[in-house]
Amino acid sequence: MSIDTAASATALAGLAPTLANQGGDTAVDSSTGSATSVLMTTDGQKDLTLDFGSYDAPVSIGDYVRWDANRDGLQSATELPVAGVKVDLLTLPAP
C-alpha cells in the first residue's frame, strides 16, 4: 500500500508527513508513504497497523532581528543585529 503523491498533491499541500515507527507500537504509530501488510485472504480481514499521518508543516523565523537602515528588505552586511528584542510566538485560532 502506498500514497499516490501525485494524485494527492492538492490534499497534502502544505502538510508534512509524521515520523514513521515512533514509540515501538505499530498499532498506533505512523507508517511512511508506503507500507507492507500481512497477507489478507479472508473477506473483511483488516490490518489496523497501517496508517499515514500528516501535520501542518512547521514554520520558522530568522535567527536575529536587524534594523533595515535603508528599508530595502534585504539583510546587508552593514545592518547589524539588534540586541534585547523579545519575540512572542502566538497560536492563532483556526480560520
Characteristic terms for this protein:
single chain; 95 residues; little secondary structure; two-stranded antiparallel ribbon; 1 helix; elongated
Plain-language structure description:
- This protein has one helix and two strands.
- It is mostly loops.
- The mean pLDDT is 77.
Helix and strand content put the structural class at little secondary structure
* Spatial separation of the terminal alpha carbons: 34 Å
Radius of gyration: 22 Å
Low-confidence stretches: none
Strand content: 5-15%
Helical proportion, percent range? under 10%
Q: Which term fits the overall shape?
A: elongated
Q: What is the tally of beta strands?
A: 2
**Strand order within the widest sheet?**
1-2
Tally of helical segments: 1
Order of helices and strands: HEE
**Global mean pLDDT:** 77
The biggest beta sheet is recorded as: 2 strands, antiparallel
Structure summarized in a few sentences:
The protein is mostly loops and 95 residues long.
Element layout with pairings:
Layout: H1 9-12, E1 15-17, E2 54-56
Antiparallel strand pairs: 1-2
